[in-house]
């Protein structure tokens, strides 16, 4: 607010001084020029009447000459003052209109309005810094799960695009630089309901500055950052950044999972992927044979080292080895879009191809050229621009890596369903047979649809009926929650994945597992199953029917009628 007043008074200082000076001179002149009353006696106007007359005269209202008719000298002075005041008023109004249209002033007003809205925030929220492809995907995912979000971005066009989005919740957005601590504070960094800060800009230094500022000004807050550089990752870890996501290393780990345990890869993709994307077919990358990696930048280098760890010695094709560096093994200088380069790399005997340059057009060209030379290839493609999704679908790559989607999916799991993150971590220690059985179970239950994943907290806020029953010593089991509250003999289309009790987790709990106060449960299944399960958690009568199979009267009228029917039967 101080900035707004300072800017307004600085821009309006000269017009205001001219207005004051004009009114003062006009008032002073009327008090000094003599006049004559009806009897011909001389009189002088006092300051009050002079100021009163100048006030309505300068606004051209015109109440007449007061308190007596003016002399010619007074009328001449009033005429001069009238034109002078009108000119000054026009000048002041023009300056005021210019101030209202000034970009800096309007930005200050928007900033003030944004700050006041954040101060009135009554729900826990996350601050998302950067509304590009990654930030947009994350905001959509979080709002779909009813998580409040505040967004900062340096581009006004992106902020305007956000306001046009059809989101489930309103998202306060502000065009500002998240590297400036003042803007982070205005976005609610010090607000007691701020749960976390997510830095998703495409600038590693900006993300690092956001992480440092967040940890210094709010040490207990959760900070999640995107980083494309291992040096920046190490710097972020040094001061306690909670989660650092490198999309290239994350995808390389996904590819290694697909090589080692295809069933576990499918399970992760089904549970953590965006529900808006269709479920893909299981992939089986060749575990041995000749691989070619086109592009040795950050992505290509991460995939190359992961393949080396799996016992595969790929050949690298890189157009600028002096800039990116060269691998320890074989490499060929070239773009990979030409058949000659791919032939030299051994494309005809290759079993796998990674099109990993930072240019989507080159990656598409590499895939199409390679397919002409060898039709039996397992293709991994890097997609940098989300707008090219349909083109990459048409090219038929087996695995498509999009950095924004990988980051958004992982952060959505960390913030929206933290138990799922824990479940995936525990699933890594299970064998391929276990993962394959669970994938088959989910596929049969949901008809190959992507499952909805939800968490349940057994507390009075989230599970009032169950918490009340447990406090009375009543036994409630996992299988009771899976019963349909409309027809208890029928099970909901869902699978219990995890139960966490006081920090101890148990995977795939049996239906006869007793539920305790404070438990946290993780389920996957159809969306309507989650809604019906929450009805059982909160409604006393629904829970009573699920547990006993009896439907008791709910209202006092039905209870009275039911009592009369019992008495008559007796």
Task: Provide key terms for this protein.
Helix Hairpins; 570 residues; 4 domains; 52% helix; alpha/beta; single chain; six-stranded parallel sheet; disordered C terminus; Rossmann fold
What would you note in describing this structure?
- The protein has 570 residues and is α/β, with parallel strands linked by helices.
- It has four domains: 2-101, Orthogonal Bundle (Helix Hairpins), CATH 1.10.287.70; 117-245, Rossmann fold; 252-416, 3-Layer(aba) Sandwich (Rossmann fold); 451-570, 2-Layer Sandwich (Alpha-Beta Plaits), CATH 3.30.70.
- Helix content is 52%, strand content 16%.
- It has a six-stranded parallel β-sheet with strand order 5-4-3-6-7-8, sandwiched between helices. The protein has a six-stranded parallel β-sheet with strand order 11-10-9-12-13-14, sandwiched between helices.
- Helix 2 (13-32) crosses helix 3 (47-58) and helix 12 (262-272) packs across helix 20.
- The protein is flat.
- It starts with a helix and ends with a helix.
Can you give me a brief rundown of this structure?
With 570 residues, the chain is α/β, with parallel strands linked by helices. The strands form 5 sheets. The protein has a 6-stranded parallel beta sheet with strand order 5-4-3-6-7-8, sandwiched between helices. A 6-stranded parallel beta sheet has the order 11-10-9-12-13-14, sandwiched between helices. Residues 564-570 have low confidence and may be disordered.
């Amino acid at each position: 607010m101080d900035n707004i007043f300072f800017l307004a008074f600085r821009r309006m200082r000269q017009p205001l001084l001219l207005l004051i000076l004009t009114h003062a001179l006009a008032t002073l002149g009327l008090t000094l020029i003599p006049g004559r009353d009806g009897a011909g006696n001389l009189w002088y106007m006092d300051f009050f009447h002079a100021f009163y007359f100048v006030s309505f005269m300068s606004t051209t209202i015109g109440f007449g000459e007061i308190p007596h008719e003016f002399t010619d000298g007074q009328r001449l002075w009033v005429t001069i003052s009238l034109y002078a005041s009108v000119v000054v008023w026009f000048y002041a109004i023009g300056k005021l209109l210019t101030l209202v249209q000034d970009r800096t002033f309007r930005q200050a007003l928007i900033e003030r309005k944004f700050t006041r809205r954040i101060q009135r925030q009554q729900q826990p929220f996350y601050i998302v810094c950067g509304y590009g492809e990654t930030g947009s995907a994350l905001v959509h995912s979080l709002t779909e799960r009813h998580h409040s979000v505040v967004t900062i971005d340096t581009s006004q066009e992106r902020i305007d695009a956000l306001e046009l989005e059809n989101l489930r919740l309103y998202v306060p957005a502000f065009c500002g630089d998240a590297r400036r601590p003042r803007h982070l504070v205005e976005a609610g960094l010090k607000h007691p309901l701020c749960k976390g800060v997510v830095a998703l800009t495409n600038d590693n230094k900006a993300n690092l500055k956001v992480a440092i500022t967040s940890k210094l000004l709010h040490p207990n807050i959760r900070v999640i950052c995107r980083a494309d550089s291992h040096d920046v990752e190490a710097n972020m870890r040094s001061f306690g950044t909670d989660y650092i996501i490198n999309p290239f290393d994350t995808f390389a780990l996904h590819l290694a999972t697909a090589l080692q345990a295809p069933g576990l890869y499918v399970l992760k993709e089904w549970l953590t992927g965006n529900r808006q994307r269709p479920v893909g077919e299981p992939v089986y990358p060749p575990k041995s044979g000749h691989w070619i990696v086109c592009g040795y930048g950050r992505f290509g280098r991460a995939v190359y080292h992961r393949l080396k760890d799996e016992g595969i010695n790929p050949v690298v094709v890189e157009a600028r080895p002096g800039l990116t560096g060269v691998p320890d093994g074989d490499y060929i200088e070239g773009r990979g879009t030409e058949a000659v380069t791919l032939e030299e790399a051994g494309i005809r005997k290759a079993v796998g191809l990674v099109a990993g340059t930072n240019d989507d057009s080159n990656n598409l060209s590499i895939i199409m050229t390679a397919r002409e030379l060898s039709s039996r290839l397992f293709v991994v493609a890097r997609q940098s621009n989300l707008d090219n999704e349909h083109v990459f679908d048409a090219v038929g790559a087996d695995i498509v890596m999009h950095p924004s989607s990988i980051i958004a999916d992982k952060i959505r799991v960390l913030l929206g369903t933290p138990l799922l993150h824990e479940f995936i971590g525990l699933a890594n220690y299970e064998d391929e047979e276990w993962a394959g059985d669970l994938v088959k179970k989910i596929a049969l239950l949901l008809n190959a649809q992507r499952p909805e994943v939800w968490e349940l907290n057994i507390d009075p806020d989230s599970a009032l009926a169950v918490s009340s029953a447990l406090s009375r010593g009543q036994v409630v089991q996992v299988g009771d929650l899976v019963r349909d509250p409309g027809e208890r003999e029928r099970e909901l289309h869902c699978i219990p994945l995890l139960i966490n009790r006081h920090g101890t987790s148990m995977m795939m709990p049996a239906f006869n597992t007793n539920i305790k106060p404070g438990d946290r449960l993780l389920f996957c299944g159809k969306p309507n199953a989650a809604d019906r399960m929450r009805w059982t958690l909160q409604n006393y009568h629904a829970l009573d029917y699920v547990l006993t199979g009896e439907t008791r009267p709910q209202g006092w009228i039905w209870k009275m009628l039911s009592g009369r029917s019992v008495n008559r039967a007796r």
